[in-house]
Structure formats: C-alpha cells, structure tokens
Amino acid sequence: GQNIDQPTEMTATEGAIVQINCTYQTSGFNGLFWYQQHAGEAPTFLSYNVLDGLEEKGRFSSFLSRSKGYSYLLLKELQMKDSASYLCAVMDSNYQLIWGAGTKLIIKP
Amino acid sequence: IAGITQAPTSQILAAGRRMTLRCTQDMRHNAMYWYRQDLGLGLRLIHYSNTAGTTGKGEVPDGYSVSRANTDDFPLTLASAVPSQTSVYFCASSEGDNQPQHFGDGTRLSIL
After folding, report:
1. Would you call A27 an interface residue with chain B, using a CB distance cutoff of 8 Å?
2. A-interface mutation test, from B6, B39, B89, B101, most A Cβ less than 10 A away
3. Are A35 and A94 spatial neighbours (Cβ–Cβ below 8 Å)?
4. Residue B12 needs a FRET pair 20 to 30 A away by CA distance; which of A32, B2, B81, B86 works?
5. Residue of A93, A3, A81 lying closest to A44 (CA atoms)
6. A97 and B106 in contact by Cβ < 8 A?
7. Tens place of pLDDT for every residue, chain B, 112 residues?
8. B103 close to B89: Cβ distance less than 8 angstroms
9. Residues contacting A53, CB < 8 A, separation 6+
C-alpha cells in the first residue's frame, strides 16, 4: 500500500528553526510537494522536489532523498504566522497526489 | 482575482438528500480534482478530471459523481447523502502533471 508518515504535532519557539520530516512509500515517484494549511483555510503550495537535494525559498527550504524515501521541510526565523499544518504529498506513478495527514506546528512566543 | 471558487461555503443536509457542490476556476487549468479532508487523515481524492470531457475515479469515489462539461466547471454530486460523507470538501486545479495544485476555500458539509 501507499503510505506517507509525518509527525502529528510539533512545537517550536518564535525566532527558532524547526524541521518537519516526511517519509513515504508509494507506487512510483513523480515528485514531492509541501503545502501549508492554516486552520479553517485551504492548503497553499510551498515547495516541490523531484531531484535529490535542497531547494531553498526564503525562510523555507525542502530536502529530498529518493533512495531513503525521505523529505524534510525546514522553517527558519519562525514567526507566529507560521503556526499552521504542513502537509507532505507525493505524486505517484499515476500522477495522483498521495497526502500525509499533516503536521500541526505550534509556535510559542 | 484569478482562482477557484467553491459554493456553498457550508451546508447542513438531511441524510438521503441530493446535493451538488460547485467548483469554478478561471485559470484555464486542464486538470481539476475533488478531495475530502477528515480530521486525522490526509486529503483523499474523490474524483479527478485531466481535461474537459474526461473524468476518473480517485481513492474514495463511492457515493459521488462528477462531470466536466467545460474547462472551468467541475461539480461534485452526492446522489443520496449519508452521515459518513460529513467532511470538508476541497476542489483543486493544476496546469498538469507535476504542477502544483491550487485549492478553493472548501465546502464544510454536515449530513444529519
């Protein structure tokens, strides 16, 4: 079966750095996406990785290792507005997204 | 402002009733999707459409139907609603394979 695992909840301090991990087992791989979802709102696209390595986009970076079935999202200089759920999703061999349940990130002052 | 519009925003529905959730996009995206989101679970794909005139079944299609008469509209119909269909429903669109999906604001549906 297909499976995406990410921690249910994480807590971090304003101004700090946090790493949210995602491991996956899917039938085929055509890229990995990270989305942010604030409570009661729609998911919004953050990043896309299809090759191994680190993609940096401002305060957010995403890393992929295809051989390990592993990705992480790194958030630097945390702000209170970063409190949200972060969703990991893998595009399988049929080009359909398989979604993790999301990691709820709580930022404390 | 370009994007995806879903209607209604929320709805309470009696079991057994028929309901159509509307989704319209103005980005001229080829692909459109319907997901449901339940607490503790990832988004689950109900139906999708790669282009106007075609549709396909996702992970949880039972009890739902869709149509794609044109590029912009992708309605989702519950023929006879059941309480297990209580959920938040998101419509999304993308330019195609490997492209990010853009989401509407969702429809919160309660079946009593």
Report:
1. no
2. B101
3. no
4. B2
5. A81
6. no
7. 569 999 999 999 999 999 999 999 999 999 999 999 999 898 999 999 999 999 999 999 999 999 999 999 999 999 999 999 999 999 999 998 789 999 999 999 999 9
8. no
9. A63, A64
